[in-house]
Amino acid sequence: MTDMTIKDIRTTMLRVPWPQNPWLKGHAFGDARNILALDVETSGGIVGMGYLFPFRPILRTIRSCLEETVIPRVLGKDAATIEAIWQDLWRSSTNYGRGGITTMAMSLLDIALWDALGKRANLPLHRLWGHFRAQLPAYGSGCFRGSGGDGMIAKALHYKELGYKAIKMQVAHTADLATDLDNVKRMREALGPDIAIMIDVNMGWTADIAIQMGRKFQDYDVYWLEEPVRADDFAGYLRIAEALDLRIVGGESHFTRFDLRPFFENPRLSILQPDPMRGGLTDLRKTAAIADTWGMMIAPHLFTELNVQLLASIPNGLWIEDMGLTNDLWVDPVPVTNGMIRAPERPGHGLAFRPEILRDCAVKI
């Protein structure tokens, strides 16, 4: 057996220019992609890689957390004991963790450990976890409010031409409610009846406004209303779900299954959208299992190339979000073809940064 003792852990901060892609117009993610990569090297020579892409200027803080509280606790441990490592880090950080920076640091390590274990087993993670299906539908995301109503519709039509059966557009935070309603109306008219329309509020409303607008959106056969209120307004989520006939979804801004507990205790949301950066792959799998117990589906937040491993291994995976934010970073991207994504068969999560990205975009600190 390969010696899986953790010999070294290295982090690399990357600042990667956005690709010259006209369909990224209107995003609010800054002038470059800031990514934190982590390599776990074992004594047997296996290297597992994890990465975070949080869209916020917090990577130096996460890196400091890793160096001060995470890495010293795991050096010399068996990289295959992923559950034990996760539990040790969670319990040891009780007084300052249970979410936020500490959990993101844990998640970065967790992703790298699973990659290393998959490589040792010579299996992709979806096979290691118990394969369920080879492919699943993707929805075209990133019809950004910043591009205006015409821009969102143009991007949605682009997705339709590529074979996607669902798109996601944004409302709230700009203009006014009448403009939001008109954008949804125009989107339905442009796409016709056969394309699902998902609406992302990005926590921009109160429960009262969400109910008011949701009742109007129902006239346009909206598939779901996403993050209508702030993440900690669980009462608001439940009020909205009880008042409307359309699906209310959320979860991307919550940390671990513990933060999602109110949704399980009051299962009004039919779909959850957990984020692998907020608990790692270890907790993501547990969240999916708990959701399955309550008849809830999983459509995780972004990171298509990583989340495909989870969704190919569970029975309650519904959709994968494709925004095309990182396709140019990988040696072997995971493409969406005719609206469907197929889980890769490379060992681990199967991802590796292109050498020129690591060479030219590393931030010196």
Summarize the topology:
Layout: E1 6-17, E2 32-42, E3 47-52, H1 59-74, H2 82-92, H3 100-121, H4 125-128, E4 135-143, H5 148-161, E5 166-170, H6 177-191, E6 196-200, H7 207-217, E7 222-226, H8 234-243, E8 247-250, H9 256-259, H10 261-265, E9 271-272, H11 280-293, E10 297-298, H12 304-311, E11 320-322, E12 336-337, E13 340-342, H13 355-360
* Portion in strands: 15-25%
Look at the structure and give the CATH class of the largest domain: Alpha Beta
Total separate domains: 2
Kindly state the percentage of residues in helix. Answer: 25-40%
CATH superfamily of the largest domain: Enolase-like C-terminal domain
Mean pLDDT, all residues: 97
Q: Would you list the SSEs in sequence order as H and E?
A: EEEHHHHEHEHEHEHEHHEHEHEEEH
Largest sheet: 10 strands, mixed
- The number of helices is 13
Termini distance?
A: 38 Å
Q: Whole-number radius of gyration?
A: 20 Å
State the secondary-structure class.
alpha/beta
CATH architectural category of the largest domain:
Alpha-Beta Barrel
Q: Under CATH, the topology of the largest domain is which? A: TIM Barrel
